[in-house]
Amino acid sequence: IFGIITTIFICVVLSLASIAFSADANSLVLTPIERMISKVNKIRENPLHAIKLADAVYEVEEANKHRQQRRIARRETFVVRSRTWRETITKAYEAAVLWLQTVTAAKEEEAPAETMILEKTIIKLGTLLALGFGHAGVNIV
């Protein structure tokens, strides 16, 4: 009976590890590659679409920079100027919440750097093709 329970336990552990590994592989490898392939296909169909992709990437980066600057400003302007014990605890709690929001947002924004670099490179190459050939040369590409 002990051998059967051990075998079942090992099967469950291996199954859970396999599921966790495949989820990580999907999120870190397959999803970014599928995004890159879709961007290359969009650029192949219409090279002028690369300019729109570049603009969208630029807008997202600017929004992230602005959001990060606001977080830093909120954190830097936090100064405990309270007179009561309750106000001090409330201010400390608010500072801790701001810090946790900053940390979790930084983790959410993190992506595999290599795949993001490759995606940006693909978009930049498509933009250069579109700008180099122009609107009339799109049919050549």
Overall description:
The chain is mainly alpha-helical. Helices cover 84% and strands 0% of the residues. It has 4 helices and no strands. The longest helix is centred in the first third of the chain and has 44 residues. It is flat. It starts with a helix and ends in an 8-residue tail after the last helix. The model has no long low-confidence stretch (mean pLDDT 78).
Give a quick precis of the structure.
With 141 residues, this protein is mainly α.
Strand-pairing-aware structural class: mainly alpha
Estimated share of beta-strand residues: under 5%
- Mean pLDDT score: 78
What distance lies between the first and last C-alpha atoms, to the nearest angstrom? Answer: 69 Å
Helix content: over 70%
The description of the largest β-sheet is: none
Oligomerization: single chain
Question: H/E series, N to C?
Answer: HHHH
Number of strands: 0
The gross shape turns out to be flat
Radius of gyration: 25 Å
Number of helices: 4
Unreliable spans are none
